[in-house]
């Protein structure tokens, strides 16, 4: 019998992952979110129950997928006391997709094992569209037997998937992926901003970039958006700042200094401080194009 699926965190990514699994014929049994209205709306669409407690999700599901915002949220939903996904969790599998510190995934795995449950980290390197159509790129870590049990479900969500080892390893790689992506985004915004100031045609510049060493995935996804100032959110500036911070903490633990990562985080922090944190990461162009956004 196919497993019953619960979701905790149904923002842009979680909601579309739930819709995808429903389309694949799985039963979405329970949904929980810090925004009860969002949970209720999605539950009505998918024939699920919007729960008022985390423990109700665990009671209603065999596999619980969590897609929360940060480390604090992960620790809250897996709390050792009070309302928690760990209540009555024996035999459950938790698949945790948030971009958080490796230590957080290790702590969640230890807490799950203590109550007879299993935990897997499934870090995603894609966005909303891929969540909806099942073409996510996933980096998965945890015990091999847990990965094997969850693999059929994860294949419904992903077009490519890489098992990278024990818990914490996928989180390390995801931090590096987002660190490099964020640096590329900031660099592209500066390049296009300077090009505009020089009076160059930005469509021409973007085409030339695409055929040279300036090419990048970010150029494909964000270049035109930077030019036309379309910053509808797929990956927010606030999340970019958070994820660059995770990478910088990992570097600090290795006694390494990463000046580009630090400068990039500072730019995304500026966006957040200016109330632009919920713009897409492409909104960093508002800091670099002359006459736009906030100025130094």
What's the gist of this structure?
The chain is an alpha/beta fold and 296 residues long.
Question: If you had to describe this structure to a student in words, what would you say it looks like?
Answer:
With 296 residues, the chain is an alpha/beta fold. The chain has two domains: 4-166, 3-Layer(aba) Sandwich (Rossmann fold); 172-288, N-(1-d-carboxylethyl)-l-norvaline Dehydrogenase, domain 2 (Orthogonal Bundle). The chain is built from 13 helices and eight strands. The protein has helices spanning 12-23, 36-46, 54-60, 71-77, 102-114, 128-133, 144-157, 169-197, 202-210, 217-228, 237-253, 259-273, 285-288; strands spanning 4-8, 27-32, 49-50, 63-66, 93-96, 118-124, 136-141, 158-165. An eight-stranded mixed β-sheet has the order 3-2-1-4-5-6-7-8, sandwiched between helices. Helix 7 (144-157) links the parallel strand 7 (136-141) and strand 8 (158-165). The protein is globular, with a radius of gyration of 20 Å. The mean pLDDT is 96.
Number of strands: 8
Q: How much helix, percentage-wise, in residues?
A: 40-55%
Structural class comes to alpha/beta
Q: Strand order, biggest sheet?
A: 3-2-1-4-5-6-7-8
In CATH, the topology of the largest domain is named Rossmann fold
Question: What is the strand and helix layout of this fold?
Answer:
Blueprint: E1 4-8, H1 12-23, E2 27-32, H2 36-46, E3 49-50, H3 54-60, E4 63-66, H4 71-77, E5 93-96, H5 102-114, E6 118-124, H6 128-133, E7 136-141, H7 144-157, E8 158-165, H8 169-197, H9 202-210, H10 217-228, H11 237-253, H12 259-273, H13 285-288
Parallel strand pairs: 1-2, 1-4, 2-3, 4-5, 5-6, 7-8
Antiparallel strand pairs: 6-7
Helix pairs in contact: 8-10, 8-11, 8-12, 9-10, 11-12
């Amino acid at each position: 019998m196919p497993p019953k699926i619960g979701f905790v965190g149904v923002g842009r990514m979680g909601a579309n992952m739930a819709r995808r699994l429903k389309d694949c014929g799985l039963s979405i049994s329970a949904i929980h979110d810090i925004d009860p209205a969002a949970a209720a709306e999605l539950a009505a669409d998918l024939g699920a129950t919007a729960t008022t407690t985390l423990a109700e999700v665990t009671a209603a599901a065999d596999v619980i997928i969590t897609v929360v915002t940060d480390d604090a949220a992960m620790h809250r939903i897996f709390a050792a006391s009070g309302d928690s996904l760990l209540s009555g969790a024996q035999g459950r599998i938790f698949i945790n997709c948030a971009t958080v510190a490796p230590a957080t995934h290790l702590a969640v795995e230890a807490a799950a094992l203590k109550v007879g449950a299993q935990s897997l980290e499934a870090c995603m390197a894609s966005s909303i569209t891929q969540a909806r159509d099942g073409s996510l790129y996933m980096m998965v870590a945890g015990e091999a037997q847990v990965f094997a049990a969850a693999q059929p479900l994860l294949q419904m969500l992903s077009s490519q998937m890489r098992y990278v080892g024990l818990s914490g390893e996928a989180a390390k790689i995801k931090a590096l992926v987002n660190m490099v992506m964020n640096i590329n985004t900031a660099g592209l915004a500066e390049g296009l901003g300077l090009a505009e100031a020089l009076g160059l045609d930005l469509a021409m510049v973007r085409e030339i970039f695409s055929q040279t060493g300036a090419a990048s995935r970010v150029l494909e996804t964000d270049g035109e958006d930077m030019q036309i100032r379309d910053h509808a959110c797929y990956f927010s500036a606030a999340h970019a700042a958070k994820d660059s911070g995770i990478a910088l903490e990992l570097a600090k633990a290795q006694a390494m200094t990463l000046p580009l990562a630090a400068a990039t985080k500072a730019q995304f922090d500026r966006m957040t401080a200016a109330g632009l944190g919920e713009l897409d990461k492409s909104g960093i162009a508002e800091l670099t194009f002359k006459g736009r956004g906030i100025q130094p």
